[in-house]
Each structure stands twice: as structure tokens, then as C-alpha cells.
Design brief:
Distance between the termini: 25 Å
CATH topology: Peptide Deformylase
CATH class: Alpha Beta
Strand content: 25-35%
Largest sheet: 7 strands, mixed
Shape: globular
Order of helices and strands: EEHEEEEEEEHH
CATH superfamily: Peptide deformylase
Radius of gyration: 16 Å
CATH architecture: Alpha-Beta Complex
Number of domains: 1
Helix content: 25-40%
Length: 222
């Protein structure tokens, strides 16, 4: 999920890492320092439009999965996102990373493997807010999402993870879980606004790519 232009990340924010409060935390998750910048897939590529494979038990605790999560964190930061799923870096696995604030000023950081979103309770309100996607580079569109959300899954070592979020973080959890099921946020839009978003993307994507390249170069300089 792309960062909202109005959201501001601050090191003074309370931080929750993998669902647990942390006393302090750096600007970027430590995983990013070990990562490589990968290409972000774009709407229309097949891998974004089909359900990803579950991560099998044999992959938990492996260097392969750890390296993927490292790469995803760094790629997410370079692309100016708050969440990124495996198929967005052309990897057919159900995993996502996130570094996202909620509406109460709490920063949430971590990853989820094989996420499952709890069904929305009938009394959970829907909130209409702007939403964007790193694989739809540039535009945002208004989309209703549940005000609160709970995702269940595992960490890279196979330990159970349960994340409950509200506001913007709840939107992120829903958005990224959708990705692992082969669904983009624009798939939830009516035909006319979807067409508008794709038109805006074509107009904005070159500027977005140039900014990502500049971000990657800046990080490489240290």
C-alpha cells in the first residue's frame, strides 16, 4: 500500500513490532539494512491477479524466507510504501511486510506469512478513505474498508501472529491480505473510478519511478 501524502512517520511515535510494544525503534526496520531493492510489479502482470501459494512448513526458518522479507522491507521504503506483498516483488508466496501508522499515532512494523483476515463483524463500520498501491503507481482513490481488522498468520519462523488494527493500519492489513489473494484495491472500485485511476497512473508513473530511483540512489550512498 502506498503512503498517504498526509501521513507522517515519526521516531517519536509509540512503536509496536510484530504486535508487541517496543521501547524504541529506528527510522527503518533493521531488516532493510540487509535487503536488496527489487522491482515492483505493476497492475496487469499475471502474478498480481491470482492467489499466491501458501508458504509451506519447510520454508519457515530458512534463509530464503528471511532474505525475501529483508528485500521486501527495503523495497517498500524505497517505493515510499507502508505495506508490500510478495507478489509485488514477483514472488509467488503469501507474505507481506508493513511499517504503518494507525489513526492514534502508533507505528506498527512487522511481517505476516500466510495471512488470514477475520470476517468483518456486522457492527463494524465501513470507512471511506483514499487508498493507493505501489503496483498502481501514483494515484489514490476513495474506497470503503472496515474501520478495524484482525489478521492471523505466522512470522518467518512459524510462530503464530495475530494483528488487530484500526484506521489506516486496519486499511493496510486488509489491502495487503487482498494482495496475497490476487486482488488489487482497484478491483474493488466501480468501472468508472477504476478507469480514472488507470488513466492517472499512466500520467504519473514516470515521475513515481524517477522518485523511487532517486530514493534507491540516496540509500546506496549511505
Amino acid at each position: 500500500m502506498s503512503e498517504q501524502s498526509t501521513s507522517e512517520q515519526s521516531t517519536d511515535m509509540p512503536v509496536v513490532v510484530q504486535g508487541e510494544p517496543a521501547d524504541s525503534y529506528p527510522d527503518m526496520a533493521p531488516e532493510a539494512a540487509r535487503g536488496r531493492v527489487l522491482r515492483v510489479t505493476e497492475v496487469g502482470e499475471d502474478i498480481l491477479h491470482r492467489r499466491c501459494r501458501d508458504v509451506g512448513a519447510e520454508m519457515f526458518g530458512t534463509e530464503e524466507l528471511s532474505r525475501l522479507i529483508d528485500d521486501m522491507f527495503l523495497t517498500m521504503y524505497v517505493a515510499e510504501g507502508v505495506g508490500l506483498a510478495g507478489n509485488q516483488v514477483d514472488v509467488d508466496l503469501r507474505v507481506f511486510v508493513y511499517d504503518c501508522p494507525d489513526d492514534d499515532g502508533v507505528r506498527h512494523v512487522g511481517h505476516v506469512v500466510n495471512p488470514v483476515l477475520d470476517e468483518r463483524a456486522p457492527d463494524t463500520p465501513l470507512v471511506v478513505e483514499n487508498e493507493g498501491c505501489l503496483s498502481v503507481p501514483g494515484p489514490h482513490a476513495e474506497l470503503p474498508r472496515a474501520e478495524t481488522a484482525t489478521v492471523r498468520g505466522f512470522d518467518m519462523d512459524g510462530r503464530p501472529v495475530v494483528l488487530t488494527g484500526s484506521g489506516y493500519f486496519a486499511r493496510c492489513l486488509q489491502h495487503e491480505t487482498d494482495h496475497t489473494l490476487g486482488r488489487l484495491y482497484i478491483d474493488r472500485l466501480a468501472a468508472r473510478p477504476r478507469k480514472k485511476v488507470l488513466k492517472q497512473m499512466n500520467e504519473m508513473r514516470n515521475d513515481v519511478f524517477a522518485r523511487r530511483e532517486a530514493n534507491a540512489a540516496k540509500l546506496a550512498e549511505g
